[in-house]
Automatic annotation (TrEMBL):
Residues 26-115 form the N-acetyltransferase domain. This is Protein NATD1. InterPro entries: Acyl_CoA_acyltransferase (IPR016181), Gcn5-rel_NAT (IPR045057), GNAT_YJDJ (IPR031165). It holds the Pfam family Acetyltransf_CG. The lineage of its organism: Eukaryota, Metazoa, Ecdysozoa, Arthropoda, Hexapoda. SUPFAM superfamilies: Acyl-CoA N-acyltransferases (Nat). Belongs to the NATD1 family.
Length: 116
């Protein structure tokens, strides 16, 4: 999938989930995770929590099963999380090593949104 296609993501709210259609990333609000189904029984995910008192989304843990490694799935999850934070005026707290790396690779784009 091209970065251009992902950049034009169309979002739609569906009963407790938010699906980003161009990347197949779903935000499961009840389970507090962005996920992508990699296989019928496996999902890649980025788990988060939201501190509503401080308008902060904590990006806690990213997991990609072996079948999805090396395919840019972690980057899609991180990009979806940052996009969600921006759309909802949330600051981002990076607790996950993968999201720290993703942020460093995209610092100019996201610097104003990340708590230092």
């Amino acid at each position: 999938m091209s970065c251009m296609l992902f950049a034009r993501t169309v979002a739609m709210r569906i009963s407790g989930t938010r699906r980003l259609f161009s990347s197949n990333v779903t935000n499961d609000l009840k389970r507090s995770k962005f996920y992508i189904n990699v296989e019928k029984t496996n999902e890649a995910y980025l788990r988060y929590s939201i501190d509503v008192n401080h308008n902060v989304i904590n990006l806690e843990h990213t997991f990609v099963p072996d079948a999805g490694k090396g395919k840019g799935i972690g980057k899609m999850l991180a990009q979806a999380a940052f996009q969600y934070a921006i759309e909802h005026n949330l600051k981002v707290k990076l607790e996950c090593d993968f999201t720290v790396k993703y942020y460093r690779d995209n610092e100019t784009k996201y610097k104003e949104y990340v708590l230092q």
